[in-house]
Protein 1
Amino acid sequence: MGFKQTINHSVWICWKDLLEFTRSKMGLIMVIIMPLFMMIMVGFIFPDSAATIEDAPIAVANLDSGPLGGNFTANLEYVNSETGMMTLTSADGMEDIRSQIYEGKIDGGIVISENFTADLLAGRQGTIAIMTDQSNPQMSMQVQAALSMTITQMGSGAAMANLNQTYGIPANETLAAIKPYTVEVESLIPNDPSYFQFVAPGIMAMVVMMSLMTGLPHAISYEKDTGTLDGMLVAPIRRLSIILGKVLAQTSRGMLQGLIILVLAILLFGVTIYGNVLLVFFIMFLAVFSFVGLGILITSFSDKEETASMMMMTLMFPMMFLGGVFFPIEQMPGFMQTISQFLPLTYATSALRKVMILGAGIDSIMTEILFMLAFGLIFLAVAVPMFKRAMNR
Amino acid sequence: MDEYSIVTDSLTKRFGDLVAVDHVSFSVKKGEIFGFLGPNGAGKTTTIRMLCTLSRPSDGSATVAGFDIVKGDNQVREHIGLVSEKMIMYDRLTAYENLKLFAKLYNIPKQKMEEKIDELLKLVHMEKWKDAQIGTFSTGMKQRINVIRALLNEPKILFLDEPTLGLDPQSTAEIREFIRKINAENHTTIILTTHMMAEADLLCNRVGIIDHGKIVALDTPQALKKMISGEDMLVIELDISNLTNGMAEILQKNECVKALTRLSDTRLKVQAVGANAFGSILDTVKSQGGILQSVKNLQPTLEDVFLHITGREVRDEASSKVKETRHHGPPGMRSNNRVR
Ligand SMILES: Nc1ncnc2c1ncn2[C@@H]1O[C@H](COP(=O)(O)OP(=O)(O)OP(=O)(O)O)[C@@H](O)[C@H]1O
Ligand SMILES: [Mg+2]
């Protein structure tokens, strides 16, 4: 049997699968809903890190007996009225702030120490204590940042006034005197990448992977369960064309989902693609190639549909989290970084990210391309003979 | 060997410790309708799957259409058609699309494919439904498409695994008629499994009875029936107006009784052997105080042969409340029913 015939048969099997797919309303809806769901979920779980807080309820306890504590509060209110980050209320002290945080009334509090005026007048630093709701780390960090920023700003204001009055430095030079350095961040791309920009490529790679890894074993074990696979097996065609046809169909479906994510990301979430779109699709195709062997392998191992889905789930979860989709791999513990180096998803995500966010060309993602090719070839070399054997039980 | 379509030699299939098909040797002549009978789990489907190259034998060998089922699996596939226990149909595809897919897999050229599909649809009176999705069909309609699907490549040998299972009488009759027709017109060899004894009797030139993976009888239906009558087999139907379960049990313990089926509240079908079987049965009924309304002498049917040989109930005979059979088994034959 010739190569051409094998391809021909597989194209017809693919035709059949896609035809079934387009006639399944549920299937079609899922293809659109799943990526949308993913994107929205991600959007809610990981709020934009660049965004600043607004109107966070913060309590202020002024324990100072002198006048400077009151000055500080007045100043704080003034600065805050400009930024609008906080809604300020008052509290009796640290214990009161603590209990208000427990009750969820406030996100954090500021305590001006008892000796605030005395310390400052004696030439020591005045102490301000900050307490935040650490059960919400994201919020806690932002409140801390906002408070620190406000207080630092007030501090420099006070210092600048001091310099001007005490040493006669002209008012417009005082800033340079206390903060001689300024940092300007030059980025690779015009705007700061949002978290969406960071996750969109990863989600694309992940959905293509999930689509293929769940779709392929499902497509084959479902036909095995219902008995229709026998119809193909009893025909004088190569076993290879069956698996090839299934792979073609699932790949088309996965790529379609990838495309939907891309469009959603651009239209709904303002993601910009800086690289070549064709290159993006080429990487997605390679990603599919790198997963496909694993999908076939699992199909051959599982005799029932349930077994297949269970094995898929078990494999997919670590991939999702260790493949660098949601968190940069560099932030993971060492051994997890090692594991992630053996996941094709890692390379797909990395390549897509480089091309989509950084506008990299094909020569900068050669490593990723080679790794994906290698994964694909190794898995296929093991999986195809296993599949043939499984079909001849 | 030219006269045979199928020759098996000690064909064996093991699933772990279970020997599903146990050194089976038989041949099927060209143009023959060959019936495979046997209780559930006897190994019929497993045998057919091996012959269709869907399952590799653990031992032994077979040739189908002149090709070895292992070494020549692809040549075998060219020449066979399969209607398996589960329908090979995609519900979301139309009848035409289903047939087209398989025609493509058999490399049938486009022109010929269109003609063939129309011709086959006409044969089973389904041309009106060509472009309707299979999912909307009744079981009978589905099975018609399923059967013609197996004929797309004009196979020399057609395997049918319980082709009339779950069909209504009309569809059953039509499928049977269709099987007979393709056998007569195209000389297609047909291998058929069924649990309906009447079907086997009606259709098959020869019948093989398989039990526990072994062929226990193989002959024409007539010869098989004669075989048991030759053994002084008595098949009678008793109508006892005050029949009780206890009475049936005691009757079954009678030495002569080989098999006993309760047909209704009052009627019993009894198979018995022995010179004085008839008298002995009547005595038992009388001693239990049974009021005998009538006695009918029945001709042995293929079902009686089946029960006689396998000593088990046939699952399609599902009308009676109590189903009890006892099996003494001829010498040299296994006598205990396997617990499944
Ligand atoms: N794939 C398999 N794995 C393990 N055991 C199997 C497998 N297929 C069949 N068997 C066992 O082999 C035996 C024969 O099964 P088979 O399906 O051939 O019986 P059958 O004669 O077709 O029965 P039925 O009348 O119920 O269709 C049964 O005990 C069955 O449980
Ligand atoms: Mg069976």
Protein 2
Amino acid sequence: MIQTVDLCKSFGNLVIFKNINITVQKGECVAVIGPSGTGKSVLFRTIAMLEKPDSGQVFINGTDITRKDININKVREKLGMVYQGFHLFSHLNVIDNITLAPIKVSIMKKQEAQKKAMELLSMVGLTEKASAFPHQLSGGQQQRVAIARSLAMDPDIILFDEPTSALDPSMTGEVLAIIRKLARSGLTMMISTHEMSFAQDVANRVLYIDEKGVYEQGTAHEIFQNPQREKTRMFIRKLKVFSYSITSRGFDMVAMNVQIELFCQKYNIDSRKINHIQLVLEELILEVSGEAEGKQQLKIDFTIEHSEEKGEILITFCYEGEFQNPFEHEEEGDNLGMVLITGVAKNFSHKYEDGRNTININI
Amino acid sequence: MEFLESIVNSFNSNLILNNGWLVVLKGLWVTILITAFGLLFGTITGAILCFLRLSATGLLRIVAKTVIAFLRGSPVLLLLMVFYYVVFANSRIDAVYIAVIAFSLNSGAHIAEIMRSALSAVDKKQLEAARMLGFTKYRAFMAITLPQAGRIARPVYQNATINLLQWTSVVGYVTITDLTRTVNNIGARTGDPFFALFFGILIYLGISYLVNFLFTLKIRNREAL
Ligand SMILES: Nc1ncnc2c1ncn2[C@@H]1O[C@H](COP(=O)(O)OP(=O)(O)OP(=O)(O)O)[C@@H](O)[C@H]1O
Ligand SMILES: [Mg+2]
């Protein structure tokens, strides 16, 4: 069990958080979300006493570990941490990474430790990598080894600090699957993550951190589908909506397409549909920037939103300038791009207001 | 043929006559002694200076920084002469010991910097990961940071050793008869400096190779562990 009581932390004049009171019951999995730089990592590090709190207490399994007479090393044997950057011991191979602490800290026999390490490796699906070195593994594999390393000490609690943020989307799945397994097995854990569907799946509760504290908390459904407070709403909307601005004709379309693809992959949108989305946007951008050529500064903003209920993609495409509706073209058949768009879109509309064209397309 | 003959002649006059090779061996011994102890005490001095340089106390850091800068900035020969002609001028300490002190200090300053940069190149988060597994600060350092820093430092440390070996050739200035001084003396005596000096260079080369070989041995051992 983890409990913090009026926990405060600042660096010099910079207050990171004030009076944080969190309780994580035994066997509970709590997800922590919040914008970058709001102190999620610092909170985790303070709970592990890697940072000294300014005031307040941290209770681990009922013991106040901020007390001076506490042997923090003993506490940490049962309190694991998994980092965003893995941080495997780079001079040791996989099996030695896992057995080092059991052998040196809990004084386990080498053979016994290795047997246990192999069991853990098979749990994370990496038995054949036992003698590989960290630099020979992919990010996802390194993170799985890091989880096994942490589990080797039989911890009661593990803190996962953005365990998948440094990974390719193609590798987050393998790591999340293991964390999911651990959550089901009743390990107590806190995990900071931006993977909404994952948090919805495993987290008993979600804490939104902002304004130097726990700004809002609730079940995953409450926080992600129906956030109550202003900042939470904005944050969740940003997570769900992809937005992009174009201000010059020389913008990097390849980079844009990559970002669109990454966003869509988070929602398991199939690659055919992703292609359609990219096609529609490319054609719209070409159309609008072509028409506006030389007339004025280009200014395009668009958002892509995934509606889970309907299984649809909503694209909102705005551009400034004169009235210009690409769907109403005089010369018929001339405009292949628009034909393509109307072909893949379920419905589409255009409106013009205050010098701003807005196109809505559902795919 | 003539060339070969002249070499054989030089060899005889320089090394065989008057037991020249024994003298060379004695000089070599002195060189090795100064290098080996210079390296040993230099490493100890380096570790201490590095420890102070990284300490949490500001004053100690400044002191260590100043000492390192001073020692690295002053030519080792001048340092040696200061010790010989000034500091230990009136003592009866053998010049070889004085040389060991001077070279220990000089190489210690270099080694302190080698250690410091190697330590700072190690991923600190790995140390923290070890702490999170229950390691004490000291044991985490010994198990994680030190072996990794050792690997990073090894090639530079090896260079420092060879540098030290070559710089010991100046100890003749304070009356020590080391390898360089010996071959110089022999060359002057036989009037054939080319052969004697060149032979000296070959011996230095040989020791350098030996040093490099010893370093690779150490690595193999470690990999076998
Ligand atoms: N050791 C430190 N000294 C000074 N400031 C620090 C230190 N560690 C973190 N900070 C500051 O604390 C703030 C919170 O950082 P933190 O890494 O906890 O954010 P985060 O919520 O984890 O963000 P992200 O989602 O990017 O990981 C940042 O402004 C950071 O600059
Ligand atoms: Mg963070």
